[in-house]
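Board notes (copied after class):
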Amino acid sequence: MAPQTCSPRLVLLFSGKRKSGKDFVTEALHSRLGADVCAVLRLSGPLKEQYAQEHGLDFQRLLDASTYKEAYRKDMIRWGEEKRQADPGFFCRKIVEGVSQPVWLVSDTRRVSDIQWFREAYGASAQTVRVVASEQSRQQRGWVFTTGVDDAESECGLDNFGDFDWVIENHGDEQCLEEQLGSLIEFVHSRL
């Protein structure tokens, strides 16, 4: 069940592999749409905060793309899976509390259960967006395959999801990306 909050007009659920550019794309949309229209929500935020509290770690350092975060990534994934198994909507409910903007950009949807929760809570307002990038593009952004991370559900849970409502190709071609963002922004405006 969704917590009491303003009902959004649109919830865009972004997914993609590490270093595909999910955060880059959501931040680009946020800057174009404005903070009064949309909010960027991160499922990993409450996960990292709770994990940091329970393990005596620096929450702020877990938020950035640092070696500090990478040192704890595998255990954080395991811990998060245990939380989700006990309550699949635990992190989803936390991120929507008190959000008042009409458009929500969930920057890090990773599991079918995340999509199911948002669809059950918000119906047709929930749309899936897959951000894709070639391995070469991801490597240029610093991605290196890590066993136990890149082959875990947190990275592969949506590989066979099926039809995404939107697919954004982020291979490094700025003009192509701009055109795709333009189409998505036009769609967002049609929902306002």
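Comment from the instructor: The longest strand covers residues 126-132. The chain has nine helices and five strands.
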